[in-house]
TrEMBL record, chain A:
Pfam families with a match to the protein in the record: DsrC (PF04358)
Lineage: Bacteria, Pseudomonadati, Pseudomonadota, Gammaproteobacteria, Chromatiales
PANTHER family membership: SULFURTRANSFERASE TUSE
Name of the protein this chain belongs to: Sulfurtransferase
Gene Ontology annotations for the cellular component aspect, listed alphabetically: cytoplasm
Superkingdom per UniProt: Bacteria
Active site: 109
NCBIfam families listed in its UniProt record: dsrC_tusE_dsvC
Listed InterPro entries: DsrC-like_C, DsrC-like_dom_sf, DsrC-like_N, DsrC/TusE
Source organism of the structure: Candidatus Sedimenticola endophacoides
Keyword vocabulary terms for this entry: Cytoplasm, Transferase
Transferase is among the record's keywords: yes
GO biological process: tRNA wobble position uridine thiolation
Primary enzyme class: transferase
UniProtKB/TrEMBL annotation, chain B:
A single MF term (Gene Ontology): 4 iron, 4 sulfur cluster binding
Occurrences of domain 4Fe-4S ferredoxin-type (ranges): 89-120
SUPFAM superfamilies: alpha-helical ferredoxin
The UniProt record lists the keyword Transport: yes
Native source organism of the sequence: Candidatus Sedimenticola endophacoides
Cross-referenced InterPro entries: 4Fe4S_Fe-S-bd, 4Fe4S_Fe_S_CS, Cys_rich_dom, Helical_ferredxn
Coiled coil: none
Swiss-Prot/TrEMBL keywords: 4Fe-4S, Electron transport, Iron, Iron-sulfur, Metal-binding, Transport
Protein name stated in the entry: Heterodisulfide reductase
UniProt xrefs under Pfam families: CCG, Fer4_8
Length: 110, 430
C-alpha cells in the first residue's frame, strides 16, 4: 500500500516496508508511526538514526537480537535491552523500527 | 526454481525413496518410542508430533507405489492419495516441529533413521510448494546474495574493520596458499564477531596461516535445511570453488551445527566427488592444537559452567570429545547436563525452525526442556558452539526470564591464551 509523504506517493510492500530505500525522509517515519498510533520522541529517533547508520555501514537490516546487542554497544546497556526497545517499539524493535527507518525487513539466520 | 506442483512433490517423494527408506518403513513396529525422544512431543503431549507420524506423506507414497498391498489398496480405493491439502497440513509437522536433531533416530529400536527421512521428505515439500515462507526466503537470499541473512561481502568487510581495530590483528582475505580457509555463519559475522576475533587471536598465537575467502565465506546451507539438494549442491560448490582457488589444505567449519553436517558429511555426496581439501570443525582443530601443545592457555574459569551440545555437531557430526577437552582446559568447574553428548536435547531452533516465524510459539514451548535441564545442572553459565543455538537459547532465556550468560567456546579459549611473548620458556602446566 503506497503512503503519502509531503505530497509524494511512496511505494511500500505488503508488510509496509519502503520499496525504494532512497525514498526515505524523516517524515516517512512520522507518518508510519502515526498509522501505528505512536508519537515519536527523541528516544525513538535515537534508534531510528542508529538503524540508518547501521544500514549505511553494514547494508543489512539487523534482526531484533542483533539490533539489541549493537544498540547496547553504541548507546549503552540501559538502551541495549529488549525491554527498553519493546517499550519504544511495541510491534518489535527489529521490524517496526526498521520499517520506520526505511530499511528492509530484518532477517535471522537459518 | 520452476513452478511447484503436487505432481512434482509426489515425484520428489518417489525419487527420495531409496533402499534405506523402504527398509525403514517396512521395519517400523509402531512402538512410538520416537515420540518420547522428541521435544516437540514431550513438551506438548500432542501425539501428532510423534516423529514417525511426521513422515506419513512419504510413507503413504512408499506404500502405494512400492508395496504389493499398497498397490492393491490403491486399486480398490482403500487408501487416500497424498494431496496438496495433506501436505499443507504436514508443513507444521515436517518443519515447525522438527529440528532434524536426530534424537528419534537414536532411540528407534529397529534402527530407523527418522531424521534422514525427514530431510528427504522435505524435498517433496519444496517441490510441491509447501515449505514455510521464512525458510524459503532464507534459501532465496542464500542463493542470490550468498547468505540466508543477506550478509554481503561489504557487510563482512565492515565487521572486519571493527575486529581489526579491537584486536590489532589482521583478518586475512583471499590469501592464496594459506593452510586453512575459515568459513563463517552469517550470525557469527553480524552478532558474534567475537568468534572471528577469537580465531585471529588463536591462529596468531599458534602460528597458523589462515584466510577467509571473498567468494565463499558463508558456511550455512539453507538447501540442507529446507530440503533442496539443488540449492544445497550450489552452496557447497561455492565453498569447493573458493577452497580450490585459494589452494588451501583444509576448510574450517565454524561454530555452526548444520554447516558442519552440510560441508563435512553431505558435501562430497552433493557435488559428486571427493574434496581436494580436508574439512575440519573449529573445535576439532582447537583440540588438535591443544593436544600437540600449539595452544597454551592460562587461568581457569571459576564459575560452574556447562556445555550445550549442538545436535548437528555432536549427535550427527560426531564431534563429542573435543568440546569437553576444551572445556576442561579453560574451566575448573565443568558440569555435564544430565543428558548430554549424543543424547543431548536440542535447543529447539535447528533445522530451519529458528528462521520460521510461524514456528515461534511452538519453539518457545519446546525450549522448556532445555531450560529445565540447565536449571537442574546448577551451572552459572552456559557454553556452546553454534551461533544459532546460542541465539535461540538467548531468546528462550528471555521468554522464561532465566538469567544465565551464554558464551561461545572458541572465544572462551581465546580469552585464556598465554599472552607473554618471547620468553622462550613454556609456562607451567596447569
Amino acid at each position: 500500500m503506497p503512503i503519502e509523504v509531503n505530497g509524494k506517493t511512496l511505494e511500500t510492500d505488503e508488510e509496509g516496508y519502503l520499496v525504494n530505500l532512497s525514498d526515505w525522509e524523516p517524515a516517512v517515519a512520522e507518518i508510519m508511526a502515526k498509522e501505528d498510533d505512536l508519537e515519536l520522541n527523541s528516544e525513538h529517533w535515537d534508534i531510528i538514526t542508529f538503524l540508518r547508520e547501521y544500514y549505511e555501514e553494514y547494508q543489512i537490516a539487523p534482526a531484533v537480537r542483533v539490533l539489541t546487542k549493537a544498540v547496547g554497544k553504541k548507546l549503552g546497556k540501559e538502551k541495549g535491552n529488549s525491554k527498553y526497545l519493546y517499550a519504544l517499539f511495541p510491534y518489535g524493535p527489529g521490524k517496526q523500527a526498521c520499517r520506520f527507518a526505511g530499511l528492509p525487513k530484518p532477517t535471522g539466520c537459518i | 526454481m520452476s513452478q511447484a506442483t503436487i505432481e512434482k512433490g509426489i515425484n520428489a517423494f518417489k525419487e527420495q525413496i531409496d533402499a534405506p527408506v523402504a527398509a525403514f518403513f517396512s521395519s517400523c513396529v509402531s512402538c512410538g518410542m520416537c515420540a518420547e525422544a522428541c521435544l516437540f512431543y514431550t513438551e506438548t503431549g500432542d501425539p501428532k508430533y510423534t516423529p514417525i507420524h511426521k513422515l506419513e506423506p512419504l510413507r503413504r507414497v512408499w506404500e502405494q507405489e512400492y508395496t504389493l498391498t499398497g498397490k492393491i489398496k490403491k486399486l480398490f480405493g482403500l487408501t487416500e492419495a497424498v494431496t496438496d491439502r495433506m501436505l499443507s497440513e504436514w508443513q507444521e509437522l515436517l518443519y515447525d516441529s522438527c529440528t532434524m536433531c536426530a534424537r528419534c533416530s537414536m532411540v528407534c529400536p529397529v534402527g530407523n533413521d527418522i531424521a534422514y527421512m525427514v530431510r528427504k521428505a522435505r524435498e517433496g515439500m519444496v517441490a510441491s510448494g509447501n515449505a514455510p515462507e521464512g525458510v524459503r526466503m532464507a534459501s532465496t537470499r542464500a542463493v542470490r546474495i550468498g547468505s540466508p541473512m543477506g550478509v554481503k561481502l561489504t557487510s563482512l568487510q565492515a565487521q572486519i574493520r571493527h575486529i581489526e581495530a579491537d584486536t590489532g590483528l589482521t583478518i586475512p582475505i583471499d590469501v592464496e596458499g594459506a593452510e586453512y580457509m575459515a568459513l563463517l555463519s552469517s550470525m557469527e559475522i553480524m552478532n558474534f564477531p567475537e568468534y572471528i576475533g577469537g580465531l585471529a587471536k588463536i591462529f596468531a598465537h599458534a602460528g597458523i596461516s589462515w584466510t577467509l575467502c571473498s567468494t565463499a565465506f558463508e558456511a550455512t546451507n539453507s538447501g540442507i535445511q529446507i530440503g533442496s539438494s539443488d540449492i544445497a549442491r550450489e552452496l557447497v560448490q561455492r565453498v569447493v570453488d573458493g577452497a580450490e582457488r585459494l589452494k588451501v589444505r583444509a576448510v574450517i567449519s565454524p561454530e555452526c551445527g548444520h554447516a558442519y553436517t552440510a560441508i563435512r558429511w553431505e558435501g562430497p555426496n552433493l557435488v559428486g566427488r571427493r574434496f581436494t581439501f580436508k574439512v575440519i570443525h573449529i573445535l576439532e582443530l582447537l583440540d588438535q592444537l591443544r593436544a600437540s601443545g600449539r595452544i597454551r592457555t592460562e587461568g581457569l574459569e571459576r564459575e560452574c559452567m556447562t556445555f550445550h551440545d549442538p545436535c548437528s555437531l555432536v549427535r550427527k557430526g560426531g564431534v563429542i570429545e573435543s568440546p569437553r577437552n576444551l572445556m576442561n582446559m579453560v574451566t575448573e568447574n565443568f558440569v555435564e547436563l544430565e543428558e548430554h553428548g549424543k543424547w543431548g536435547w536440542c535447543c529447539g531452533g535447528g533445522g530451519g525452525v529458528s528462521s520460521n516465524e510461524e514456528a515461534a510459539g511452538l519453539r518457545h514451548k519446546a525450549f522448556r526442556r532445555k531450560k529445565e535441564q540447565l536449571e537442574a545442572s546448577g551451572a552459572d553459565a552456559l557454553v556452546t558452539a553454534c551461533a544459532n543455538c546460542r541465539l535461540v537459547m538467548e531468546e528462550g532465556f528471555e521468554g522464561y526470564r532465566v538469567e544465565m550468560p551464554i558464551l561461545g567456546l572458541t572465544e572462551l579459549v581465546a580469552d585464556h591464551l598465554v599472552t607473554e611473548e618471547g620468553s622462550g620458556e613454556p609456562p607451567e602446566k596447569r
